[in-house]
Amino acid sequence: MKTGVYHHPGAKIAALVLLLLLLFCALAWGQPGHFSFTTAPDSNGGLIITGFSSPGSGPLAIPGTINGLPVRGIGDSAFRSSEVTSVTIPNTVISIGAGAFLTCTSLTTVTIPGSVTRIGDSAFYDCYSLTSITVSPQNTVYSSRDGVLFNKDQTTLLQYPGGASRNYAIPNTVTRIGDHAFDQSTNLMSVTIPNSVTRIGDSAFYDCYSLTSVAIPNSVTHIGDYSFALCSGLASVMIPDSVTSIGKDAFSYCSNLTNVTIPESVTSIGDSAFNYCNSLRSAIFMGNAPAMGADVFDGSASSFTVYYVYGATGFTSPVWMDSSGDTYRALKLLPAADGAGTVGKKQKAESRK
């Protein structure tokens, strides 16, 4: 008598149907029927993808042609909030629009071909699972290194993937950290900025709430608007005496920041630069009073005090009214024998406005 496992014919049929269904889904993902598009201007009849109807989550290889016409561009917000997990862009594409992959929270990898010559602002913004951006070596405008997006000669860091590693050392070829470069890189705990960097762009480290400290090198001259805003974990920041301007809201809502030293080189501080840093107890000015925007220290700790060095101009004690009309309690740092400043006899000061 034969023994063994009996396979009901219906089970084989069900397995075959399931296999065909999976194959169909794999083939259907990214097919022309899921794209909306328009004719690209000045592109010899090419197309720009303007939208995508996702059948679910999965990898996406964007087709090089749709209905026989080449795909020349990915429009603004074309794949916004889609569930793609990886994207391969064909070498027919020339431009990637602003916010093209905005809030694609499942996106982990992107491959950019040599044909792309323009990537719009915030193209990969709020993609917090993104770990790697790879650019073809044949690209003449962009490049990648360790999964990070740069311009071709790697002097400007353009995009650090939002889900990349917790610690990062910026290459010493970089002279500029681009606008939004680390924006919402919520995993980032530490970053090393080389002394080749001269400019930190607007919103460069916006909402990097795991970042605990940052040392800005003595080569940076400008700290951009919102550059470290909402870095709620930031407990200390070292501003070097090369910096001449601090942008508006540059450190706003850094709720763990307790003190800050403004070097003599700073001549202007933008509106709300340290707004709602509610643990901030002191700001020490090492030079003359800079031009101040409105509400620079608004919302800081109730004990907040401005300290300024002996001989500096533009300050008054016990209350200082800055150039925007805001008032703060203020104390002069008197010179000491060892060269370090000490706080003079404590004076009764009015409360800060």
Give an overview in words:
- The chain folds into two domains: 121 residues, Leucine-rich repeat, LRR (right-handed beta-alpha superhelix), CATH 3.80.10.10; 189 residues, Leucine-rich repeat, LRR (right-handed beta-alpha superhelix) (Alpha-Beta Horseshoe).
- Helix content is 6%, strand content 29%.
- It contains one helix and 29 strands.
- A hairpin with a 2-residue loop joins β4 and β5.
- The longest helix has 20 residues.
- The chain is elongated and about 75 Å long.
Structure summary:
This protein has 353 residues and is mostly beta strands. The chain contains 1 helix and 29 strands.
Structural class: mainly beta
Total helical elements: 1
Q: Which strand-content bin applies to the residues?
A: 25-35%
Tell me the name of the CATH class of the largest domain: Alpha Beta
The succession of helices and strands, N to C, reads HEEEEEEEEEEEEEEEEEEEEEEEEEEEEE
Largest sheet: number of strands, sense, barrel closure? 9 strands, mixed
CATH H-tier superfamily of the largest domain? Ribonuclease Inhibitor
What is the tally of beta strands? 29
The residue ranges in which pLDDT falls below 50 over 5 or more consecutive positions are 1-9, 11-33, 336-340, 343-353
CATH topology value of the largest domain: Leucine-rich repeat, LRR (right-handed beta-alpha superhelix)
Average the pLDDT over all residues and give the rounded result.
86
CATH level-two architecture of the largest domain? Alpha-Beta Horseshoe
Task: Give the termini distance in whole angstroms.
Answer: 97 Å
Q: What fraction, in percent, of the residue positions are helical? A: under 10%
